[in-house]
Amino acid sequence: MEMQVTPGQRLQAALEAECPLQIVGTIHAYCALMARDAGFRALYLSGAGVANAAFGLPDLAITTMSDVVVEARRITQATDLPLLVDGDTGFGGAFNIARSVRELIRSGVAGWHLEDQVAVKRCGHRPGKKLVSGSEMQDRIKAAVDARTDPDFMVMARTDAFASEGLSGVMDRAASYVEVGADAIFAEALTALADYAVLAREIPVPILANATEFGQTPLYELHEFRSAGIRMVLYPLTAFRAMSQAAFETYATLRKEGSQKTLMGRLQTREALYAALHYWDFERKLDELYGPSPNSTSEEKP
Fold first, then answer.
1. Residues 71, 86, 160, 183: which is the catalytic one?
2. pLDDT in tens, 273-283
3. With 80 as the cut, is the pLDDT of residue 126 above it?
4. Catalytic annotation present for 52
């Protein structure tokens, strides 16, 4: 009997196949399909993406674990690509962290990261961040590791220490997080490749760099991250920002012109959408089950 490959194992395989592994943000299932078709090997669900896109709220620890799990499950049901999930500060104490890990694993998620900010957290690239002690964050990691029902589920530790404690604080915290079981380190808002290089050289687990736009980290090229020893590069909201700008411009044009005629060259065609969704396969299955509709005018597609 063939052994089933777990989502965590798929994430590990992606890490071995691509260096650095590009992990691209997908705010919902259809974005996940588009990212897959563009050739990405791993996906990401941002906490900010859930708050912004699904609830129209800022990323200020307002959404819950259940909110995130719902969106994660939709993505993992749409594609087999491994999904890394933003776990904020763990959604509560030790038992909440444990429950979150078990729910994410049941939802087909490959891994998550949790961070060392206080519970009322802020965006990682905003001022005013406050951290818990290193020992409290170690307890969060231990709770997550202990709760794993899948040993391949990645527990990644994010540290926001650079803004207040500098590189030495990042190094000390990262080392202590690895000691208690963190599988990877997410060093948030570093500003220089040299700092990433020191971290990657000294910390014996994969390092993730967040290449988010409009933040503290310059938009380095992939080969630059590679030269610094970075194993994963995250693009958490790039597509969401592009989609949001396009949507706003579309709404403004419709309102101003009263027609979509000038927009047609920028719109995804019905055929392109149907191809991404394998629409015709579903339609053929309906025909097999119930026979073709006598009023159908749809054309047969490959």
1. 86
2. 999 999 999 99
3. yes
4. no
